[in-house]
Amino acid sequence: MASHSVYRRPHPRTAAALEALQEADLARWRRAEPPPLLLRGLAEFDQRQFFEQHETLEALWRAEPEPIRFLYQGILQVGVGFLHLRRGNFHGAVAKLESGLALLAAFEPVCLGVDIARLRREASACLEAILALGPEQLGAFDWTMVPRVRGPAGSRQ
């Protein structure tokens, strides 16, 4: 099994978001209540409705002017990575997982009640498995590895 290295610089928009996050004060969102659309998007993610979670979280991300928008975008991109994986698109899966994971780093360990550290850890393991499989063996991916977001601590959507 060949290991595929696809490391590259982030997309310019992702790079700009990461730069903005370095200077952002995210403290006020750490313990804030999650908005209803986030809860809906998290439930869709956990139900493996990755296209639907994309639509839901994209509406939330685009409407939000504050840096918390990058949390929504990061979760969205991780989900879209799994949508690409489901469709057999190796490059799309890797690119979206990488960018989503990068955006989520600033929000660890927990933000809006979501265990971001666990989500990143489990999604990173999926990314490593995808890279190890490569495009030729993508169909052998173990879908039981895909994380569940589970929403705010202790809740079940």
Describe the structure.
With 157 residues, this protein is mainly α. The chain has a single domain, classed as Hyaluronidase domain-like (Orthogonal Bundle), CATH 1.10.3450.10. The chain is 59% helix and 3% strand. Strands 1-2 form a two-stranded antiparallel sheet. Helix 3 (36-46) runs antiparallel to helix 4 (50-63), helix 3 runs parallel beside helix 5 (69-86) and helix 5 runs antiparallel to helix 6 (90-104). The termini are far apart. The model is unreliable at 1-5 (pLDDT under 50).
Q: So what's the CATH class?
A: Mainly Alpha
Structural class: mainly alpha
**Count of individual beta strands:** 2
Low-pLDDT runs of 5+ residues are: 1-5
Summed over residues and divided by their number, the pLDDT gives a mean of 88
Number of domains: 1
Q: Write down the Rg.
A: 15 Å
Q: Beta fraction of the residues?
A: under 5%
Secondary structure: helix percent: 55-70%
